[in-house]
Amino acid sequence: MDKSHILQEVNSDRDVEAQHAAPVGPREDLGKHAFSIAYRRLSYYWSMVLLIFATVIMIYTIAKEWTNPPWNYTHPVSEIFIFLLLLSWIALLEGCQISIVGLQAIDIELYKQTHPRAYQVLKLAHKGPNVERFLVGRQFLLLFNGFLVTKVSGADGDEFYIGDWHWTREAANFFWKNSVLLMIVIIVPGQLVSQLMAAEKMLGFLNLPFYGYYTVLLPCLIMESTGLVHSSYMLKDVLCKIGGIDVSKGDPKKRMSKDFLYYSRVLISIAAVIFSGVFIIKGLSKKQTNATDGPGWNKLPGWAAIIMTLFFLFIMACAEGLQVSALALAKTHTASFKDKSPLAYRTTQLLYAGRNMQAFLVGRQTIVAMMMVLLARVTSYAGSDGELLEGGDWGMGKGFNQWLLQTGILGAVLVCNVAQLASQVTASIFPVELINNHIMHILLRLMLLIEASGVVNACWPLAWGVDALFGLEKDPFDGDENVKTPAHDLLERKKSMGIPTQKGVSPFDLHQPETEYHMEYTYKVSYI
């Protein structure tokens, strides 16, 4: 690498931003990266073809009734409608989270007339502790919807064919039975498109006529009020005590009221997690779940199914925690942990370089969706008639098996509390400590590699198309340095770390892959 690319060493006791102006790209002739650029642009086409193929196969499967939904017979048209409705709801849950969290620092009263639907959502969402409540409730709804999509479109059969076109057993098992094509459908239109749109145009996305107040915010707050996910609040209190964090110094308006009802819900949540865990471990060990049902899976012994499930939970927890740490550290001066936690600093250098933050979010979402589909399989009981093992549910009955075990509700309770919310809470309190290890650094590189492979790159042209269709305009405060948004925080951190940026390009610009001079810094960074 040319000497001009090496970041200069400076006094780490102060924020680097105070000592150097941020370098502005381009740093190198993009002609040297012609193959990388050509491959990326080509990936938009073949990834789109793959997505269309996957979507057709999923809908064809449902239409042919080759699925195993956790309810009695319904017409295929109804199940296709449910499938598309669940995917749409997942997309709204993903996009609204980006907007609600990212817009916390703006004065929403300024946009009451210009963005009335967004104003209605933000007025309630930003009241008191409602952002935290929304995030907790949303996490469960998102996961449970993902579990239901997996059940509604999950394969039930040993052979796949369309007319005279018969798939080989190996192809049917890999792409169809093991839900590889389903993962692509969930990841791209279900999750990434709305995320990418909302990240760039937070206010505009929230103002779209899907009425997020009723379709997203209220359902999430209602879900949170059930108490099934309150265990995360208790964990947060415990970790704050361990970390010596004085919660009384926080914003009193954001503080949650800890009354009798609060602690009752915490106990309900803990009991639900233990109850779910017991039944899922029992089902895994006795080979009642889908972890040991189907070609290849049926050869897995019970103890191995338990270990595999724990591994999936661990990977999902790491992916969730890494995202929270990445966003939290974008607001933190790196000089505060550079010497004490060098691996965490190195990880943030790689994360914030070039367009890596966007690439990370795409790769991370891919891994999370993969784990969601796999955990939906291994934590839900197989079959559609109630029991796989006579008397195997300790006398709970067919209704319990069908509506709590087969639908994946108990699995969602366990996964949401243990693999998602617990790691998110931990990362929010200890963001540096969580990523100061080789596991997280390797996982980050894997996420970047997944995005670079192009397998889910259909999300980019789809996002461009939907953005153009709705005619979304940039947020009114876009580029205003006085408004603290995630994009602003990331640009500040790039400057403080001496990472080159391109003038006029936001870290979350939808068209960034075509405009950011990033090739030299996307997967290769010189460390201070």
From TrEMBL:
Keywords assigned by UniProt, alphabetized: Membrane, Transmembrane, Transmembrane helix
**A single GO BP annotation from the record?**
silicic acid import across plasma membrane
Spans through the membrane: 42-60, 80-103, 179-198, 210-229, 260-281, 301-330, 361-383, 403-422, 442-463
Q: Which Pfam family, any one of them, does this sequence belong to?
A: Silic_transp
Superkingdom, according to UniProt?
Eukaryota
Q: Does the keyword Membrane apply?
A: yes
- What's the protein called, per UniProt? Silicon transporter alpha BC
Identify the coding gene: SdSITb
